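Technical appendix A lists one of the benchmark inputs used to test multi-chain prediction within the project. The record comprises two sequence entries:
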Amino acid sequence: MNVISDPDANSATARLTHLARLEAESIHILREIVAETEKPVMLYSVGKDSAVMLHLARKAFYPATPPFPLLHVDTTWKFRAMYELRDRAARAAGMELLVHRNPDALRDGINPFDHGGLHTDLWKTEGLKQALDLHGFDAAFGGARRDEEKSRAKERIFSFRSAAHRWDPKQQRPELWSLYNARKAKGESIRVFPLSNWTELDVWQYILAEGIEIVPLYFAALRPTIIRDGLMLMVDDARFKFRPGEEVVERSIRFRTLGCYPLTGAVESRADTLPAIIQEMLLTTTSERQGRAIDHDQSASMEKKKQEGYF
Amino acid sequence: MPADSLAKAGATPSAPPAGNAYRPHDLIGTDIDLYLRQQQSKSLLRFITCGSVDDGKSTLIGRLLYDSKMIFEDQLAALEADSKRHGTQGQGIDFALLVDGLAAEREQGITIDVAYRFFSTDKRKLIVADTPGHEQYTRNMVTGASTADLAVILIDARKGVLTQTRRHSFLVHLLGIRHIVLAINKMDLVGFDEARFEAILADYRAFATEIGITHFTAIPVSGLGGDNIASQSARMDWYRGPSLIHHLETVPVDADALARQPFRMPVQWVNRPHSDFRGFAGQIAQGEVRPGDEMRLVPSGRTSRVRRIVTMDGDLPLAQAGQSVTLCLADEVDCARGEWLTSADAPAEAADQFEASLVWMAGESLVPGRAYWLKLGTRTIAARIAAPKYEIDVNTLTHAAARTLALNSIGVVEITTEAPIPFEAYAQNRALGGFVLIDRITNATLAAGMIHFALRRASNVHWQAIEISREAHAAQKGQSPRLLWFTGLSGSGKSTIANLVEKKLHALGRHSFLLDGDNIRHGLNKDLGFTEADRIENIRRIGEVARLMTDAGLIVLTAFISPFRAERDMIRERMPAGEFVEIFVDTPLEVAESRDVKGLYKKARAGALRNFTGIDSPYEPPLCPEIRIDTMAMTPETAAQIIVDYLAAGQSLFE
């Protein structure tokens, strides 16, 4: 990565590039949490933001292994390619990988085909709370960015949750300079967002500059698809429940975000390199999260989810 | 393209002229690789916008996002729907809705917090802190300004320089922002009149000079119409200066200048993966560093040389302000989180008394004398604040005497830290002179502070080496020292029980001493009254005296109401683990009041006695005392025996 930007005409000083500044800030945040909390964990969802966050963690603590485990809150419905990269990335980092699957959801066979919103609630929201309580983590790193959604623009970098994991927008602490107050009462926990100030474009540029491995699904390839309710879905395994009349068609597609495969919409694309992806992103006219069914109901829906404990 | 999508979404007359929008670079379509190479050397600028809803601030930010193509079709469609429901622009697109975030706030039609927005031009990534202009939210503006390199102060061209303009300018200046843009907005509503612009400019210049702002850039704009936002407006050909975006793209970033100052890095974390590696991790706050550079650690004063600058991408020959690095030193020196690595030829100073500006950010007001946590750099330390020297009225900018600081008030104070800490003046370096105060009980962030200067240098103060240790004192008496801290309401029975305990200890041949109101209030503390601050100082002194007595090997008993948890906990923390025994003499207020041995409750109820605990001053019961005495359930004699038994059960007290 370029660290020093070209000096401009007004000044002879070397300047750090925007990516160098973002990287330094994220590393500072990661180290603060390790220094000031007892049992941190990194939520690892296998997406591109998680990949960047993991990469930053390895840099922050090098030559030591990052002093916390990775936690994947699994829904059992992720793309197969995600599981493959997850295990490989954890091994490469030398970090412990914890996988949590909500036992209640597992028992009741909760799935995205039959249970709609309940699927996300039980597997992800409940699953996350269970995993944090089970291991007694007092700080959890997440890859959320402020540019993703309107209500996130106001989210702090250190976001405090009550013992019941509730988020109270009125009780959040002011964050000044690069001073983060990580003190908390027993039972309270902090969600920490080291990528808060990154944009989608920054994430892609950093992946390109640092050569970070990401799930191949981000790159265009011929894949089996169907179209349902306006979303283009990929038929990733034999569990896919077809509706009458649905026909699998091979299309050149890629994904802009990754989640549970039956809920994640693909876009038709020929972009099979990082520069092509970035080019497509810069020329496109719809925002990133549109591919996720979760945000569609209302523009304030993310905020409701957050108050309930969704990451 | 934005104009097309707007048309598709059903544009209205308030839609911006198509030719005015900031367009993505042509290279994106033609040569993406070259474009990306150019993008790699972009710099970063953070700025804040100050103004009220009425000044069109949110509209301006929405406009910047729109013109730099940060708004997508789906967002635009959602925006159009929202505009019809909540908008203030009739059937037009309300850009303000793009940036007003949380649902509850949107219902009220006002932004109430700090929101961060991102946009990017071909030269720079820009992060804007959007903060409310409403009077009671000084706190939010100060938060947003703390990370900003530049401030855009909005003025409604119809209204000119208002009280809030002065307030915003003062806060921006207080927070050390050196680049100020005066955006004179709504020029469309004054007929793009140059004379109006010049008049406002003259007004502002007079005021700015008064408060010490020497330099600012004024730009006439229309957020609604996009004039002078992305490109120069044809409707104001009399204006020759830069457009707002052009200015944001080219103004120098302060952080870069810090690279030329002497080296400073607060140690954040000590990296010890194995016995052969010991690195000091931190973000360089000032200066640059190369292997071989001589370092002085502050405050310890130890010195060494930089051996390596370690990163995952290989060792670096040079690192500069802003980078997060790991430094290895040539010698095995002790250095913990909170210490600073500083250049040996221009080392940082350490001090334990400072003058500082303080912005109070919490509902609970400042309590002079109380211990708070102070976090500066990577160091968190106990600190006390004397009564403010004065408070500054942000509207009139006049100074007034003050006993405390309440939410959103700003004052100048003297601060004492428990031990010397390294620092720089805030004016020199924001990261090294800015601090926050944290409540020791609730952990809330209470205030933001900016160090002006040290009141005295701590470097010459050395502890006298003590030859006879506290262990030696205790061993001579054949006992383990203890501090039995009785707390409870007036008339709860603290003194009665404490006296009985001391008699029993005496009979057992133990060396003890009882501190109570009679022997303290008439001597050591006779200069103190009963205000909250005085009561805190009273307890602090008692705690210190008691602690010295335990150093002498004594079992000390104290019998004071000591109503505040923070002070009791502070004394506990000053004691070796296990030596502080908190005894809660628990008597309900009605019972204590009905006993009223000294007739004090009667006086307090009659209003003759102010700040009386339980009546017009709170009592905070201990959350987990070592011993709780329920005086309704036992006699003082039984209570005393329970306490003596507790002491006897504790290890070596009565061996």
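The two ends of chain B are 87 Å apart (CA to CA). Chain B touches chain A through 86 residues (CB under 8 Å). Comparable benchmark entries are summarised in Table A2.
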